[in-house]
Amino acid sequence: MKKLFQYNWQVREDWFRWCEDIPEEELLKKRVGGVGSVLYTLFHIVDVEQSWIHFLKTQQNLEEPPFEDYASLSKVKALSNQFHAEIEPFIQSWTNEMDSLTIQATNSKGQTATFRHGEIMQHVIAHEIHHIGQLSVWAREIGREPVTANLIFRGLYE
Amino acid sequence: MKKLFQYNWQVREDWFRWCEDIPEEELLKKRVGGVGSVLYTLFHIVDVEQSWIHFLKTQQNLEEPPFEDYASLSKVKALSNQFHAEIEPFIQSWTNEMDSLTIQATNSKGQTATFRHGEIMQHVIAHEIHHIGQLSVWAREIGREPVTANLIFRGLYE
Question: Superkingdom of the source (chains A, B) (predicted)?
Fold first, then answer.
């Protein structure tokens, strides 16, 4: 579980570096599919990871911050770093026994559902990988090579 | 680990069903990014999962079958089912202790590297989720709603 979070964080950093060579208007341009732009995708990944992990830690929901307040590469990176400092200790202290703990969540329509903690962790992992796949298509549209999605050859198991 | 494979298999089946409503020429159309078409992506996902798991089971490499022999929805589905029958028992019998086993692999350039078995399993999981993210962009290009990538609300933990 932890390795997949580490993979996501490493890939995310690679994409932040990739963004440095791209004009900000390209990063903010509305595109087909996903949540609509490169930067909004990175912002959304950061926000969803933070809000679910915060919920596991505290059973409290967080409001999504308005993207307008973070619509630049430097601001999304800063938000990612800020949230990362909050959630990394929680994830690093994860044990397999925590997978089967249960938690109840209520959505905006008032519907309540019960989840396993491990299910939420895996949902967050898959969420980021899925959206990164969308970035890889848009990278080619911009005429650039995307960041590799390979999990091997990243030194995660050394 | 097993839950993430089950997630991928369920999402893959959803995409096969999604494909049934799309003209085959759209499924085979060359697109920007990824491996180039919806059907080739599904074929590639199926092939990569099978070849890595086969390698973990037998330490033998498999050749990639030629896509020309599988370039229809029914043939890719049949290949997926055939391979699934071979690899599912291996994945279902996975235990956490197997994660740390090591295996050496040699690529086509003769370079050898050592991997953990768990690292290969996670590489295969991330590989499928990443490519499915690409399909979701192409679905919108075709004017269709993509399959949900949510891991929650799939009954995986019931």
Answer: Bacteria
* Interface check A146 vs B, CB under 8 A: yes
CA-based torsion, B98, A130, A12, A135: positive or negative: positive
- Say which CATH superfamily domain B2-141 falls into: dinb family like domain (1.20.120.450)
- Measured CA to CA in angstroms, residue A115 lies from A96, A122, A142, B116, B148 at distances of 16, 11, 39, 30, 18
A139/B contact by beta carbon, under 8 A? yes
End-to-end CA distance of chain A: 16
CB B30 within 8 A of CB B156: no
Residues A35, B146: contact at Cβ < 8 Å?
A: no
In the predicted structure, residue B130 carries a pLDDT above the cut 90: yes
Is the entire prediction scored with pTM above 0.95?
yes
C-alpha closest to that of B88 among B41, B135, B54 = B54
Category of A143 on φ-ψ map: left (φ > 0), alpha (ψ -120 to 50) or beta: left
What number is the ipTM of this complex? 0.97
Structure tokens given for A84: 């990362």
The domain segmentation of chain B, as residue ranges, is 2-141
The minimal CB distance from B116 to the residues A96, A134, A157 is found for A157
